Amino acid sequence: MKKTLQDYKSIIEPVWCPGCGDYGILVSIQRALLNLDIDPENIVSVSGIGCSGRLSHFLNTYSLHGTHGRAVPTALGVKAAHPELTVFAVGGDGDGLGIGGGHIAHASRKNVDMNYLLIDNQIYGLTKGQTSPTSPLGVKTKTSPHGVFEDTLDAIPIFLSYDVSFVARANGVDPKSLTQILMEAISHKGMSIVYILSPCRTFPLLDAKGLKAILQPLPEDHPTDNKMVALERAYSDQPIYTGIFYQVQKPTLEDRLQNVITKVCDNTNGGDKYSLDKVLKSFA
Ligand SMILES: Cc1ncc(C[n+]2csc(CCOP(=O)(O)OP(=O)(O)O)c2C)c(N)n1
Ligand code: SF4
Ligand SMILES: [Mg+2]
Question: Is 95 near ligand 1, meaning CB less than 6 Å away?
Fold first, then answer.
């Protein structure tokens, strides 16, 4: 039977504030999955803690709303155990660039074939408006009444320097282009990060109009396999580009693990080259 958007909606109604950017992102994910005709029972979404972390409840997939900053390693474990599944990690700027920031580099080194949706509203939304790693310098928040005094993390250059094999920035209030980018990310074989700018209505550092004014799609002839061009455009703040900055093919975690398994099972050296017995004896 032909699927509809309804097949990707869970029975739990979203509880975000009216006007929150996360609503549009949820629908864009559901539409991308529908367009790619992926069966809901073959999808796992793992989320961190935050308003954005609630997203996994509202998708009709297997879901785990885990711990703050740990969506990426948990999703990695799911994918390692079940490579046949489509696996998402979802979380906010605090979750992914603050407490969980260290995980991205290591998931990228393994090139685990998962999709990480990092939803940046430049604030800790759920806990009521504290400074996040992407809050702009000088803005006043609950934890910076005299203005943020720390520099802001620039996410796209960080992901490029980690050599994440698919790096994109998207406007969360432009569902059409976000859906398109998500479809590309899901289809990519390897780790994809879609960094989504999304307004928080209650602690408004970003708004839909402001995003429209500062964001511009990458030029049509942008070479997605050229990291230096990607870096140069990632650092541009006038305009701030959206689209796929970088995409390369390299062995995934599944390929790498299969490689190890093949070596372990290789009997050509008398069957003991990689035997457990030999490994244990090496520690004797
Ligand atoms: C280990 C731990 N530290 C702190 C918290 C409190 N906490 C919950 S959500 C959050 C920040 C969420 O901000 P972000 O990731 O940007 O998500 P948003 O709510 O903005 O979508 C914090 C600090 C927690 N739940 N667990
Ligand atoms: S606090 Fe902000 S991010 Fe959280 S649900 Fe409300 S509008 Fe959305
Ligand atoms: Mg946030």
Answer: yes
136 and 17 part of one domain: yes
**Which range (5-9, 118-122, 139-143, 264-268) has the least confidence?**
264-268
- Measured from the Cα of 92, ligand 2's closest atom is 3
CA of 159 to the centre of ligand 1 (A): 21
CB 48 within 8 A of CB 68: yes
Average pLDDT over residues 51-77: 97
What band does 269 get if pLDDT is binned at 50, 70 and 90?
low
Number of domains composing the chain: 2
Q: Bin 243: left if φ > 0, else alpha if -120 < ψ < 50, else beta.
A: left
Which pLDDT tens digit goes with each residue over 176-196? 999 999 999 999 999 999 999
Give the number of other Cβ atoms within 10 Å of residue 143's Cβ. 13
Same structural domain, 256 and 201: no
- The Cα 29–Cα 9 span in angstroms is 10
The reply to whether ligand 2 has any atom less than 6 angstroms from the CB of 29 is no
pTM higher than the cut 0.85: yes
Residues 6+ apart with CB under 8 A from 140: 146, 147, 148
